[in-house]
Write a structure and sequence with these properties.
Number of strands: 9
Strand order of the largest sheet: 8-7-4-9
Helix content: 25-40%
Low-confidence stretches: 36-46
Strand content: 15-25%
Oligomer: single chain
Structural class: alpha/beta
């Protein structure tokens, strides 16, 4: 966060990212009904920070509107050419579906969750997408750089991100969970 403020990069926090941004600036979020449409803009010196509570799987009609809002937020501010996918978790709540493969290998409409993301990023002017693994790291077969969280089962996504800290210091990037689906960029 401090790097973004220091270098005038826009920051977009979605769901837990909104919670992190709020906490970083010393605020607290109150529970509210229908939080999928709540948003918060913070202007900190010259840095623009957007935080939003949005769950596309819960509010499909809202998806197109908010997608355009995100694109407009970033246009003219930053060009990202790197992506990082957090794929360390097992997805234990999915039961036997993840006994032999990571959660992001679950298929939807004939395609693995992680492949939806790789496709969206690769068709959105992102020329490098790297992956942070944990559970069943040997299952991953994509031609990319990997970072591994060996204590994935006793840590969280923030700990997984630290495994790529040197890479993150060098690159502005989009960081994504491995178990969500979003569309490729549409001009």
């Amino acid at each position: 966060m401090q790097h973004a403020i220091d270098t005038d990069l826009p920051v977009l926090g979605v769901c837990r990212g909104m919670q992190f941004i709020s906490h970083y600036f010393g605020s607290t979020l109150l529970p509210c009904e229908g939080h999928v449409t709540e948003s918060l803009k913070i202007k900190h010196q010259s840095a623009l920070i957007l935080a939003i509570m949005w769950h596309p799987e819960r509010d499909i009609q809202f998806k197109k509107l908010i997608s355009k809002y995100f694109v407009n937020f970033f246009i003219g501010r930053i060009v990202l050419h790197k992506g990082l996918i957090l794929a360390a978790g097992r997805g234990s709540r999915m039961g036997s579906l993840t006994d032999n493969a990571p959660k992001c290998y679950t298929t939807i409409d004939g395609k693995r969750l992680i492949e939806w993301q790789l496709n969206a990023m690769n068709t959105s002017y992102i020329d490098e997408v790297d992956i942070i693994t944990g559970y069943r790291k040997d299952n991953f077969e994509y031609p990319t750089q990997y970072f591994h969280n060996e204590i994935w089962d006793t840590s969280n996504m923030a700990r997984s991100l630290t495994k790529a800290h040197t890479w993150l210091e060098k690159h502005d990037c989009i960081i994504s969970y491995s178990d969500i689906i979003y569309p490729p960029r549409s001009d």
